[in-house]
C-alpha cells in the first residue's frame, strides 16, 4: 500500500467527520421526529436492517418505516439515541464503513412503558455528489430491558 500524503490524511479525517455528522443528523432527526429530514441521510437505494425480521429496501421504504414506527402518534414514543465510539474506515474516496455503539432510551407514553437498549450499528456509506450518505445500516440489539410504569 502506498504511503499516504499529508493531503490524503487530511481528506480522510475530514471525510470521517462528515460521516459522523450524517449519523448524528440521523439520530437527531429520529429523536425529534423530523423524519423528512432523513431523506438527505440516505442514498436512494439504501438498505436498512433494523433487527425486525424485515429488510427495508430503498430510501422511501426506510423513511416510511420510521414514520410508521418511531414517529407514530399512535405509539406516542419519545426516543433518545446516544451513539458513540465510532470505528470508521474510509475504504475509497467514495466508500466507507462504520461501526457505532448505541444506547437508546424510549418512553412510550400511552402505554406507560420504557425500553432501554444497548445496540451496535454496522453501516456502509457512499459519497454521492460530494456528500456522504448511508448506503446500508444494520442494527443488532445486544440487550433490551422493558419496564412498565404503574
Describe the structure.
The protein is an alpha+beta fold. The protein has a single domain (6-148), classed as Nuclear Transport Factor 2, Chain: A (Roll). Helices cover 24% and strands 49% of the residues. It contains two helices and six strands; from the N terminus they run αββαββββ. The protein has helices spanning 6-31, 59-68; strands spanning 42-49, 55-57, 77-90, 95-108, 113-128, 131-148. The protein has a six-stranded mixed beta sheet with strand order 2-1-6-5-4-3. A hairpin with a 4-residue loop joins β3 (77-90) and β4. The longest helix is centred in the N-terminal third of the chain and has 26 residues, at 6-31. The radius of gyration is 17 Å and the shape is elongated. The protein starts with 5 loop residues before the first helix and ends with a strand. The mean pLDDT is 95.
What percentage of residues falls in helices of 4 or more residues? 10-25%
Strand residues, percent: over 45%
The assigned structural class equals alpha+beta
Spatial sequence of strands, sheet with the most strands: 2-1-6-5-4-3
Shape: elongated
Figure out the total of helices. Answer: 2
CATH class: Alpha Beta
Straight-line N-to-C gap: 61 Å
Which stretches are poorly predicted, pLDDT < 50 over at least 5 residues?
none
Layout of secondary structure:
Elements: H1 6-31, E1 42-49, E2 55-57, H2 59-68, E3 77-90, E4 95-108, E5 113-128, E6 131-148
List keywords for this structure.
Nuclear Transport Factor 2, Chain: A; 6 strands; 150 residues
Amino acid at each position: 500500500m502506498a504511503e499516504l500524503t499529508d493531503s490524503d490524511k487530511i481528506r480522510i479525517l475530514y471525510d470521517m467527520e462528515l460521516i459522523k455528522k450524517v449519523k448524528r443528523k440521523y439520530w437527531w432527526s429520529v429523536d425529534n421526529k423530523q423524519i423528512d429530514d432523513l431523506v438527505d441521510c440516505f442514498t436512494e437505494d439504501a438498505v436498512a436492517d433494523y433487527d425486525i425480521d424485515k429488510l427495508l429496501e430503498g430510501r422511501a421504504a426506510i423513511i416510511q418505516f420510521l414514520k410508521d414506527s418511531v414517529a407514530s402518534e399512535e405509539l406516542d414514543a419519545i426516543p433518545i439515541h446516544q451513539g458513540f465510539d465510532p470505528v470508521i474506515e474510509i475504504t475509497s474516496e467514495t466508500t466507507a464503513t462504520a461501526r457505532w455503539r448505541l444506547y437508546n432510551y424510549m418512553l412510550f407514553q400511552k402505554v406507560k412503558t420504557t425500553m432501554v437498549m444497548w445496540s451496535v450499528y454496522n453501516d456502509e456509506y457512499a459519497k454521492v455528489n460530494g456528500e456522504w450518505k448511508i448506503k446500508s445500516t444494520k442494527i443488532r440489539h445486544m440487550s433490551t430491558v422493558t419496564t412498565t410504569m404503574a
